[in-house]
Specification:
The protein has seven helices and 15 strands. The chain has one domain (about 10-275): Ribonuclease Z/Hydroxyacylglutathione hydrolase-like (Metallo-beta-lactamase, Chain A). It is an alpha/beta fold.
Length: about 280
């Protein structure tokens, strides 16, 4: 049974066409990981752990602050804007909107580089106490407080925000585009039951998620309850990379770690499976 017992209300935002629209080299839908780390990145400054030492010499293992782009035939949606060079992302994709899980610096720092471009930023209705906001970083325009479990039509995307932490201070997002249903959660674990029920009811094909700061069975249980066909892990710090080195086999579904700069063409793979 759906949690939505009344007709779904929709909020509609117009798409901003991408400068790369119509590029025959682009798949119909792709997920591109611009940054896959936390606010400190990997290697973290001053950290001497094995993960950071190896990443200092191996560029492929480095992680910059989190930012993911969903690109569907020229219409693009960003998940988080932590990467420092977010202005470059805007030039490449002409992002229609940014969905943020909260307003902590690691999720919105790149908006500083968005000046002077107006940009819609969609997130929770309030900022965690004591965190610097984005309202005083002009000209971030059209900051929108998402309403849980309410559909938002953003160009060719349909997005629904849901509480991803107790008290609803942080949001995750269910995004539908084409025949794909994608879930983004900054940190799995301790997700409210109503949010899990909502996601199970709507259906999930792909999960893009981070682990809790102390990875445990709760994150694995939350992932398993969604029964995703594929799971891409992002927003990782060196401790989480180390945990995955020894526990990654316990994750459900086709789970793997995302890396900076990696692109996953989704609809092409789905069409191939159907054939």
């Amino acid at each position: 049974m759906s949690l939505l017992t009344e007709p779904v209300r929709s909020t509609v935002f117009a798409a901003i066409p991408s400068s790369r629209a119509g590029d025959p080299a682009l798949p119909r839908l792709s997920v591109e990981f611009i940054g896959t780390g936390d606010s400190y990145g990997v290697p973290a400054f001053g950290c001497e752990c094995a993960i950071c030492r190896e990443a200092a010499y191996n560029l492929e293992l480095r992680r910059t602050p989190i930012c993911t782009v969903l690109n569907a035939e020229g219409e693009a949606l960003a998940l988080e804007a932590g990467c420092i060079e977010f202005a470059t992302v805007l030039e490449r994709y002409r992002i229609s909107a940014v969905l943020v899980s909260d307003y902590s610096p690691g999720h919105v720092y790149g908006l500083r580089s968005a000046r002077p471009r107006p940009l819609r930023v969609i997130g929770p209705p309030s900022e965690p106490s004591g965190e610097p906001g984005i309202d005083d970083r002009p000209p971030v325009a059209g900051r929108i407080a998402a309403e849980p479990f309410r559909e938002m039509a953003i160009g060719g995307f349909t997005a629904v925000a849901f509480p991803s932490s107790p008290g609803g201070r942080r949001f995750g997002y269910w995004v539908a585009v084409g025949d794909w249903r994608i879930v983004y959660v900054r940190r799995m674990g301790s997700m409210p039951g109503e949010s899990i029920d909502f996601l199970v009811d709507r259906g999930v094909d792909l999960v893009v998620a981070g682990l809790p700061r102390a990875p445990d069975g709760g994150a694995i249980e939350a992932l398993a309850s969604l029964a995703p066909g594929r799971c891409l892990l992002t927003g990782l710090d060196c401790k989480e990379d180390a945990w995955l080195d020894s526990h990654g086999e316990t994750l459900p579904g086709d789970a793997e770690r995302a890396r900076d700069g990696r692109v996953f063409p989704l609809l092409e793979r789905r069409v191939a499976e159907a054939g």
